[in-house]
């Protein structure tokens, strides 16, 4: 049992109903829900004072909030999350919504045209902003790669394919990267990328890492055998080659031909590790989720929600996603089946074309 279901199951029937009706009222109107309003809709006859006491308990749990003194209550972000995970009743897709979605995907033209029409249909049905992620082009050969720093801990991978298609993928770069190191990584990739797919390019980098690692190990073994150096934490991410005698870390001792070779190998190895990490992050996909408020890290917008569903190819591999962005008081019960059906339909159409 997940945390939301556990908390809800531990509520009394009255607390659960008050919580559900407050959230449903807020999602419908966007306004706080008062105790007197609830006395007219509760399944049992209870006083407004009793409902206020229940609301105070729910507020203490962090599920409800009071925007003004003596006002009604609205759900907190945690309350909305709890409701979506434990109490949300998903409606059936209406025949009208189904017809709009299917008609938007009926024309046989480019993938871009299909996704544009699907996005417009989603926006029209849900009155929210649509999000459509195009299929990942994993097998097509790459022509050019760029990494663009967006903010601390966020970067954009721009992939230009040989057929002219362009993909932009937001990812978290390896720690400690600077714009100049990212440009260096892109320059290296572009030198070996032409004619290779993203996965083939990743294999090239991994082979390079293994080669550099082997060469470094051979040289370091000679130094260790000669008694001039010793490995500290070999094989770990924090491994160091310590020079005996002066007991200094590599780079602090007097220069020598062997030490210079080791230093260059270490630098080369670290760069290729970072490049491999860039490629792995660029290939990564995300699963189905409902993001609420500040959980929505993709957009970093408070007061917004994202309902997103992936679509798959004929091999059941996730190749893209469709979704809807709207206020936190989104009609989740209606939006979820619309997004899910749209994703299924897009996946089927693209799978049939393959």
Automatic annotation (TrEMBL):
SUPFAM superfamilies: GAF domain-like, Winged helix' DNA-binding domain. GO terms for molecular function: DNA binding. It holds the Pfam family HrcA. Coiled coil: none annotated. Residues 114-336 form the Heat-inducible transcription repressor HrcA C-terminal domain. Keywords: Repressor, Stress response, Transcription, Transcription regulation. Negative regulator of class I heat shock genes (grpE-dnaK-dnaJ and groELS operons). Prevents heat-shock induction of these operons. Belongs to the HrcA family. This is Heat-inducible transcription repressor HrcA. It comes from Dinoroseobacter shibae (strain DSM 16493 / NCIMB 14021 / DFL 12).
């Amino acid at each position: 049992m997940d945390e939301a279901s556990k908390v809800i199951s531990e509520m009394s029937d009255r607390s659960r109903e008050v919580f559900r009706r407050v959230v449903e009222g807020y999602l419908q109107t966007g306004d706080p829900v008062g105790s007197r309003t609830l006395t007219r809709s509760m399944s049992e006859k209870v006083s407004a004072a009793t409902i206020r006491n229940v609301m105070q308990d729910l507020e203490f749990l962090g599920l409800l909030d009071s925007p003004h003194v003596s006002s009604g209550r609205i759900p907190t972000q945690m309350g909305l999350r709890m409701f979506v995970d434990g109490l949300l009743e998903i409606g059936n897709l209406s025949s009208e919504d189904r017809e709009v979605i299917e008609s938007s995907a009926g024309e046989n033209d480019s993938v871009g045209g299909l996704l544009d029409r699907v996005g417009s249909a989603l926006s029209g049905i849900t009155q929210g902003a649509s999000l459509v992620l195009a299929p990942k082009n994993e097998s097509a050969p790459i022509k050019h790669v760029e990494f663009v720093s967006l903010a601390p801990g966020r970067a954009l991978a721009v992939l230009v394919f040989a057929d002219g298609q362009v993909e932009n993928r937001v990812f978290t770069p390896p720690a400690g990267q600077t714009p100049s190191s990212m440009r260096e990584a892109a320059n290296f990739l572009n030198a070996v990328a032409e004619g290779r797919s993203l996965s083939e390019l990743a294999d090239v980098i991994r082979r390079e890492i293994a080669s550099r690692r082997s060469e470094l190990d051979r040289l370091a073994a000679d130094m260790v055998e000669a008694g001039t150096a010793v490995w500290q934490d070999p094989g770990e991410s924090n491994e160091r080659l310590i020079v005996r005698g002066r007991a200094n870390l590599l780079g602090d001792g007097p220069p020598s031909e062997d030490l210079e070779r080791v230093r260059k190998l270490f630098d080369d190895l670290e760069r290729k590790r970072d490049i491999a990490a860039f490629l792995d992050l660029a290939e990564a996909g995300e699963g189905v989720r409902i993001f609420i408020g500040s959980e929505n890290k993709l957009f970093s917008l408070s007061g917004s929600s994202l309902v997103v569903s992936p679509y798959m190819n004929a091999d059941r591999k996730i190749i893209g996603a469709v979704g809807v962005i709207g206020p936190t008081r989104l009609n989740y019960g209606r939006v979820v089946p619309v997004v899910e059906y749209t994703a299924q339909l897009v996946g089927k159409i693209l799978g049939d074309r393959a």
